[in-house]
Amino acid sequence: MVSAALKDAQSLFTPVTVYSLLACAAQFAVGYILAQIWGRKCSGTDRWVLVWLFYDAIVHITLEGPFVYMSLVGTVATSDNIFAELWKEYGKADERWLHSDPTIVSLELLTVVLDGILALVLVYAIVKDKHYSVSGDSGGLTAPASPSPVPPVLTPTPPPRRARVRYPAMVDVGKWPLFTLLGAQEVSSIRQACVFGTSANEAIYITQDDEVFVFGLNCSNCLGTGDSQSTMVPKKLDFLRGKKVVSLSYGSGPHVLLATEGGELFAWGHNGYSQLGNGTTNQGVSPILVSTNLQNKKITQVACGSHHSLALTHDGEVFAWGYNNCGQVGSGATANQPTPRRVTNCLQGKVVMGIACGQTSSMAVLDNGEVFGWGYNGNGQLGVGNNGNQLTPCRLAALQGLCVLQIASGYAHSLALTDEGLLYAWGANTYGQLGTGNKSNQLSPVHIMAEKERGEGEWPAVGSKRTRENTEEAWHRETDRIVEIAACHSTHTSACKTQSGQVYMWGQCRGQSIVLPHLTHFSCTDDVFACFATPSVMWRLLSMEYDDFLTVAQSLRKEFDSPETADLKFSVDGKYIHVHKAVLKIRCEHFRSMFQSHWTEDMKEVIEIDQFSYPVYRSFLEFLYTDNVDLPPEDAIGLLDLATSYCENRLKRLCQHIIKRGITVENAFSLLSAAVRYDAEDLEEFCFKFCVNHLTEVTQTAAFWQIDGNMLKEFICRASRCGAFKN
């Protein structure tokens, strides 16, 4: 019987059986590998679902698929292949498989089509849900295109976070040290501002009332105050009062150019090379109207190099004057130009839309998107393919076919932004200011591609350009359109802002040479120059756009104790405090519990508070709306009690801070007693040390003799251990 059983077992495990088991194992392995690749961003649970779906699809398509095929062209019995041998084994159990019975064939056909293909559809659905993102441009969902080699990439370096569009934040002029000299009211009145100078030590600002103020070092009379005295207190330039400023620029002397809404051009400051355009080399101690050759011309934009000047008119004409040792005035010669002269040659009959200046070079962009450069070109900053100076405007042939919208010039490098959001850079690269990943100068424009920072579960959309070589990571990255570029002739720093609100910087940043664009947490390019440029000047005339928009924090602050919108009142000492249940529930765990259905307070419109005073409770509620506490130290003790009762640890720390700042000999022991009572160890230690340091005075106060006897004994014992009574 045993031998018969062994014979039966041997007949079960034929070579075909082994092939079948190996095939199943191989199919599972393939399914597992595919799940790891396609489910790279999926959770562990989802990946095992993908393993099963891939395995299910492979089994039905590779195993039952051949059965359907053999049955359609003949029968299993008449076929001769490895799959036929397998199905012949199956046919021993049921001959309908062997002879391709129509019922069996139809069943298998449905299985292959429905089960196998449906499994693949489910795989696609899961992967799409985890990896694909909707493109606003294409309006569809697509897989990434094949990656290809690309120019240098803006590589995000901070920890991964989801890219997002940010509201254009109002620039804080307080990031420039000079403006910390102004009071809050003065700062709030500023509409436009500019910081300049060799050490960022001069400033101009225009108020909401169109009054122009200046302050700072006043090097070369660049403040235009009529004298050469420096001033830490802003002085008003009455000559410019009421003039709406549309453009402002400064040189290295420095000299200053200012264009008004009416098209007038004013200049003052350093004039050693006639860069003020008044035909002399005398310093401009106060603003002068530049009118030579500009009669009936409306100036819309100005730009300054180190010692030369450009002005753009409403008609698209460019005028230049000042230092011309390298041809930066564009006159065809190298003699200095004392008054404004129109730049012609290749610009004759063309409409210029924008201008920019490097230290000794000039750039212009036309209405058709062409770019021209002239002046010094020793570092290739003109982008014409060589390093020879150009005495007249020369077109950048390398940008042929591109429509440039904006140009910006650094000390000896240039940036250009096209209408497709593409960034190009060329010129000097000593500090990595081109963002190419090295420090080699570039004689022609190099394409710098912005790479959109991507959160988990997002895949590139239609039309996105690949930014990595052929790696798996390239499937999870997408280029981001650039909307603004920034550079300044007095720095070696570059910056840009993308459509998603991300700001990058590169070049010389606080002494470091950043050779690849670095993703920052700034909301605007101006912040880059305030915090990292050397000197920390402004790269443009900064405009503060004041409107009625309020941030969430400002809106909450505004609605505190507002009867119009409140849905709850607290009655404290006979006075009402109007609040919003939703805000209290969000901000305080005590109120979150209170406003549950099983608390009676949840149904009330007025809640009586009798254990705390009105100032204390109002300060607590205001803290929930503003994160600020403004109380005298004596009332802060009551707020500390409340914070302890409500388990508001941050509020406890704020109260302790207020109490520490307000401690005196008279209240020291009262504060120590309160600290012990509310278990504020840090405050207790602080008050104890204060009392010991002023022991003689403290022991003569009324508060000292009014404390509890046990606490007095504890204090004396503790003070003695500290050696307070040695003398």
Model description:
The protein has 727 residues and is an alpha+beta fold. Among the domains are: 120 residues, no CATH class; 371 residues, Regulator of chromosome condensation 1/beta-lactamase-inhibitor protein II (Methylamine Dehydrogenase, Chain H), CATH 2.130.10. It contains 19 helices and 30 strands. Strands 1, 18, 19, 20, 21 and 22 form a six-stranded mixed β-sheet that branches. A hairpin with a 3-residue loop joins strand 14 and strand 15. Helix 3 runs antiparallel to helix 6. The radius of gyration is 38 Å and the shape is flat.
Relative strand content: 15-25%
Query: What name does CATH use for the topology of the domain at 173-543?
Result: Methylamine Dehydrogenase, Chain H
Q: Architecture of the domain at 173-543 in CATH?
A: 7 Propeller
Number of helices in the DSSP assignment: 19
Radius of gyration: 38 Å
Low-confidence stretches: 4-10, 130-170, 454-477
Helix/strand-derived category reads alpha+beta
Quick overview:
The protein has 727 residues and is of the alpha+beta class.
Observed structural traits:
727 residues; Methylamine Dehydrogenase, Chain H; 23% strand; six-stranded mixed β-sheet; alpha+beta; 31% helix
Helix-strand layout with pairing:
Blueprint: H1 2-12, H2 15-38, H3 44-73, H4 82-91, H5 95-98, H6 102-131, E1 153-154, H7 184-188, E2 190-196, E3 202-207, E4 212-216, E5 231-236, E6 245-250, E7 255-260, E8 265-269, E9 284-289, E10 299-304, E11 308-313, E12 318-322, E13 337-342, E14 352-357, E15 361-366, E16 371-375, E17 390-395, E18 404-409, E19 413-418, E20 423-427, E21 442-452, E22 478-479, E23 482-487, E24 493-498, E25 503-509, E26 512-519, H8 525-531, E27 542-543, H9 552-559, E28 568-572, E29 575-579, H10 581-587, H11 589-594, E30 606-609, H12 614-626, H13 633-645, H14 649-661, H15 668-677, H16 681-693, H17 695-698, H18 702-705, H19 709-721
Parallel strand pairs: 1-21, 28-30
Antiparallel strand pairs: 2-3, 2-27, 3-4, 4-5, 6-7, 7-8, 8-9, 10-11, 11-12, 12-13, 14-15, 15-16, 16-17, 18-19, 19-20, 20-21, 21-22, 23-24, 24-25, 25-26, 28-29
Helix pairs in contact: 2-3, 2-4, 3-6, 12-13, 13-14, 14-16, 15-16
